[in-house]
Design brief:
This protein is mainly α. Helices cover 79% and strands 0% of the residues. It has eleven helices and no strands.
């Protein structure tokens, strides 16, 4: 399918595939480090409680994990911005967000995690907890090796969207088809956020101290939040599927309503009441009985609060793209069979 591009900034299909490939390269790296660092952070926090030699390494493992999770979302946003025909404002927003998280976040985390691992305290920590320590060192070495590669990916996105000349030839998507690509990008961002919170909150839920009665409220809302986020991941995917179907949007509305039901009495209530539980006297007592658990819970909850409005914007974006935006470009070309 071809279309005129004089009055609109648009990439052809080939260029958008390249941006997709670069975006997925960035997301895979970030999310892999997030999963690895979160697992190590959680284990070391539990095993090395009260061990001052592990304090620095533990803190930077957690910081690196959260930074990589956030970078995954922003890398997806850059990919989405590249797919959006017209203004590049959306791409620039995510580029700046990604850059802010990359410099004081990803770069600083890589440097200072290495500094702490290789310090006298870090070496002592590895000797005291060899399996976790050696695993942390191995993951950090891979992150260092891939650092320049990751920067090249980011520069690749910058070149494709900002520096190179706009596409004037090639196959272009009709607007109605390109909207499906945008719906995919928004849906993917929603799923990444939900799944990340489901993983972290569930990990915290199953590791809460069952003997500490003061942890009852915090434990309940951690489990509730984890389950809600897992369900939201499924319904966000369903909305994406419904947005791809031509014609009736009944399936999209079904998943939109299911997502909304899970979002209001589920996700929203979970965010509010988990926070309230953390700040109660019992919540403070629970965190005091296991400081590492309390620190992890508070950190993940704060990230969830920070991303709440952002997630609502993603949901509104889905609503606009599927139910409100006027559909244009309904011409179709068919493959002719036979002579």
């Amino acid at each position: 399918m071809r279309r005129e591009t004089e009055n609109i900034m648009a990439m052809n299909v080939h260029s958008k595939l390249i941006c997709a490939g670069i975006g997925f390269l960035m997301m895979v790296q970030n999310y892999s480090f997030f999963l690895a660092y979160w697992n190590l952070y959680s284990q070391l926090s539990e095993e090395a409680q009260g061990t001052s030699a592990c304090a620095g390494t533990t803190w930077w493992l957690g910081y690196d994990a959260l930074v990589c999770a956030i970078e995954t979302v922003f890398a997806c946003g850059m990919m989405l911005g590249a797919w959006w025909d017209g203004s590049r404002v959306l791409w620039w927003i995510f580029f700046v967000l990604h850059l802010v998280d990359a410099v004081p976040g990803y770069t600083v985390a890589t440097i200072f995690l290495g500094t702490n691992i290789n310090s006298a305290d870090g070496v002592a920590c590895i000797e005291a907890h060899p399996s976790i320590g050696h695993a942390a060192y191995a993951v950090w070495v891979v992150q260092v090796v891939f650092y320049v590669f990751y920067v090249c990916c980011m520069l690749g996105q910058f070149y494709m969207v900002v520096i190179r000349k706009g596409d004037e030839k090639g196959t272009f998507l009709d607007e109605i088809d390109n909207d499906k690509l945008v719906v995919f990008g928004i849906g993917l961002m929603m799923m990444i956020q939900n799944f990340s919170f489901a993983v972290t909150f569930w990990d915290l839920f199953v590791k809460i101290n069952p003997k500490e009665s003061a942890c009852g409220g915090t434990g309940y809302w951690l489990g509730y939040n984890a389950i809600v986020c897992a369900i939201e991941t499924v319904f966000a995917c369903g909305m994406m599927l419904g947005g791809w179907i031509d014609g009736s949007k009944v399936l999209w509305w079904i998943f939109f309503v299911l997502h909304l039901v899970d979002a209001v009495p589920g996700y929203t209530v979970a965010v509010i009441f988990l926070g309230k539980s953390i700040y109660t006297d019992d919540g403070a007592k629970c965190a005091g009985a296991d400081p590492s658990f309390g620190d992890r819970t508070y950190a993940v909850w704060m990230v969830q609060v920070g991303f709440y409005v952002f997630y609502c914007c993603c949901m509104v974006g889905q609503l606009y793209m599927v139910a409100i935006k006027e559909k244009k470009g309904t011409n179709r070309s068919f493959l002719r069979l036979g002579p």
